[in-house]
Each structure stands twice: as C-alpha cells, then as structure tokens.
Design goal:
This is Peptidase MA-like domain-containing protein. The chain has 19 helices and five strands. With about 425 residues, it is mainly alpha-helical. A five-stranded mixed beta sheet has the order 1-2-3-5-4. The protein starts with a helix and ends in an 11-residue tail after the last helix.
C-alpha cells in the first residue's frame, strides 16, 4: 500500500509540473493579469514562458501585444521614454510590424529624441502618418522648408486631413519671414532673428534666456535637455506670423516668439517677457499640455514679475463680483479683449502666487507632475496637497479669504 501511495504522489507531482510547463497555462495566466490591467506582471509571466518555449509563436505574439498595450498606457500618462522602450521591446518580437515601428517613432518624437525618432519613422513606410511626424521633427528643429515638403507629400496621401492642412498653412505663413532671418546659438537655445534688428540685441536675448533657464528651472525643478528654438520679430512680422491679439507681448507654441521691433537692448520689460515665455516651455514639458490656462499663465506671471512688475491695482475682496469663473480661466485667453485679458492675467497671478506663498514650490512641482500624468487639476491639487487635506475648491476658498479688504491691498498681491 505505501508503494501505491508513493506512486500516486509521484504521478500527481509530475502532472502538476507538466501543467505548469504547458504554454497554454502561461498564456491563460497572462490573459488574467492583462484583464486586471497588470501588464507588468503579465510581461514577466510571458517572458518566463517564452524562455521555456522559445519557438512558440503564440506566446511571442502575446508578449509583444502586452508590451504594446503597456506602451499605449505609458503614452496616455505622458511617460514617453517608457512608452518608447516598451514599443521597442514589442517590435523586437515582431520585427516585420510597420505599425510598431511607427508607434516607437512617435513615442521617441514625443520624448524629443529627434534623431532616434527620425531613424524609426524613416522605416515606417510611406504612409501619411510617418510623413507628418517626420515633418514635425523638421519643424521643431528649424528646418521649415523640409517640414513643408514632408507635409505636402502627406497631404497628397491624405487630402481630407484638416490638422495637416493647418500645419501647412501655419508653416507657409512663417516661411517668408523666417527665410530671411539670421541665426545665433547658446548652450541650450537656437535663436533666429530679423537681420534688421540692432547689433548686439540677439546676444543680450540669449544671455537673458540662459538666466531664465537656471532661475525658472530651479523653481519648477526642470532643466530641458533638448535645444529650444527662439525667434525675434519686428512687430509687423510678429503679427503676421502669429495672428495673435494686439495685447500679446510674446508667444510660446513649441517655439518662443518675441516681438522686439524698435528695441536696441533688452529692457527690464523684455527680460520679464523672456522669463514668462520660458516658463511656458517648462510647464509644457512637465504637463504635456494638460494644464489649465490660469495655472500656466499664473506661473509665467510670477517669473516675469520678479523682473518687471507692472503698475496694476491689486485684487481685493471688494472685486469679488468682478472675478472671472475658473472655467473661463481654464481656457485660452487669446480670444479675450484687452480689459478682460488684463483681469484674467491678474487673477491667474493672484491665485497662483497665493499657492506658491502658502504651500511652497515643491507643492507646485507636485501639481505639475500629476498633471503630466494626466490627472485633472482637482485631482492633481488633491494629491499634491494631501497633507493639507485640500482639493482645488478648498485652495480657491483659502485664496479668496486671503484677499485684502478694499483699500488695504498691497501691490503685487
């Protein structure tokens, strides 16, 4: 009898081992993990399976799919470097997939790894999408004619693409002005400027940009590693290129654009604008565009007003009925008239300055980090200010309570 029990136990152990070694078992377990959203653990399970069964194509494709799904989640969360690495891993498993080459290239572009992105996108075929992103790389790195050529080729393949038509229209508006510009460079900035501008002004602008890089970078905890394009225009050219509102003193749309016509040197006001626009560069890198306008502009105003504070009446409790709704301030300001735009900037500065003074720059950096992970503003504030048990409504309530009574305001509040 003991021999029969020992034999039965041995058979059961063998069956368990055989079952664990079955590719279908690994695949089923990985599917359960994927269904729960646990892609990382599913990848570990499938990597173990493919090392055991290196010739099982189903397991290999399942692993590639899981890497790809994890990469897509990384893209949505703004984790571009991780997304690029996971798309690379997926492509190594399915080397013939043009779609994976394309997605790898897009992730590299979003991470501003332009050389690697161009190399991948050139292998992604002649579809319109690779051409669009190759054009974006050319545009971002200052090759406007090259960008136009690529986008026009893409338009031939996808004539109904309205976004592409907008890119072409914008580039065609900029080309006549930029084609006659001179160039200047510093450690992190590529400067293009109208040849008619006074000699020496471009060098002073570069010095101010380098100063902004260090000062604003310290406040926001971000120091870009990709070169930043900056363009200096006459006022007439600035209006024709940007089509911005009359009250605009500068613009950041992936490139810093500044109207400097009539200036012979960098004034305190221009230096403030340079710091303001450079702040937008960092906020864009940190949040990937997921930021309400009031917070973006408020931070930029804080940095600019350190250098040049306009003589403006402070907000007070008596102005409460004139305050703009937060929903309006979360959208762009460019469609506003001058008076409303002044109120939008002043209120944005007041709210954001209060947050910095009350909770500190580290809390602001945390808010920006959570926005970069695709949290909405309320959730980003709640996470960053968890120690204060505050959400966005609570912060706005504290800000309103901080406003001085009429006649008691101090400049810069």
């Amino acid at each position: 009898m003991p021999d029969r029990r020992a034999l039965l136990l041995a058979l059961l152990l063998y069956a368990g081992t055989a079952l664990a070694a079955d590719p279908l078992t690994y695949g089923a377990k990985a599917q359960q993990l994927i269904a729960k959203g646990d892609f990382v653990q599913a990848i570990e399970e499938l990597k173990a399976a493919t090392s055991r069964f290196p010739y099982d194509q189903e397991l290999k494709h399942q692993l590639a799919f899981t890497y790809s799904e994890l990469a897509k989640r990384d893209l949505q969360a703004g984790r571009y470097a991780q997304a690029a690495e996971n798309f690379r891993q997926s492509h190594e498993l399915i080397p013939d997939s043009k779609e994976l080459v394309l997605m790898h290239g897009i992730a590299l572009y979003l991470n501003k790894d332009y050389a690697a992105a161009r190399s991948e996108l050139l292998q992604a075929g002649e579809g319109s999408e690779p051409l669009v992103y190759l054009g974006k790389i050319s545009y971002d790195t200052g090759d406007l004619p090259g960008a136009l050529e690529l986008w026009r080729r893409a338009k031939e393949l996808d004539p109904a693409n309205k976004v592409l038509a907008g890119l072409i229209e914008k580039a065609e508006r900029e080309l006549p002005v930029e084609s006659r510009m001179d160039k200047g460079y510093s450690s992190m900035f590529d400067l293009s400027f109208d040849a008619e501008l006074p000699p020496g002004l471009s060098g002073q602008v570069l010095d101010a940009l380098e100063s902004a890089y260090n000062t604003v970078g310290s406040d926001l905890g971000r120091f870009p590693t990709t070169r930043i394009p900056v363009l200096l225009y006459t006022k007439k050219d600035y209006s024709s290129v940007t089509a911005g509102p009359d009250w605009s003193g500068g613009l950041y749309d992936g490139k810093i654009r500044l109207p400097v016509g009539g200036l012979t040197e960098v004034t305190p006001q221009l230096r403030a604008i340079i710091f303001h626009e450079f702040t937008h560069v960092l906020v864009a890198e940190l949040t990937h565009g997921n930021v309400p306008t009031w917070f973006n502009e408020g931070l930029a105003e804080i940095e600019g007003r350190k250098l040049f504070a306009p003589k403006l009446p402070p907000l007070t409790g008596a102005a409460d009925k004139h305050l703009l709704p937060l929903a309006d301030l979360s959208r762009g300001f460019s469609g506003m008239g001058g008076a409303q735009a002044w109120m939008a900037y002043q209120q944005s500065f007041s709210m954001t300055s209060f947050m910095v003074q009350r909770y500190g720059w580290y809390a602001v950096q945390e808010i920006l980090k959570h926005l970069g992970e695709r949290a909405d503003m309320n959730k980003a504030v709640s996470k960053a200010l968890a120690d204060y048990a505050l959400d966005l409504d609570g912060v706005m309530r504290e800000w309103r309570e901080s406003l001085p009574a009429a006649g008691q305001g101090s400049e810069g509040q």
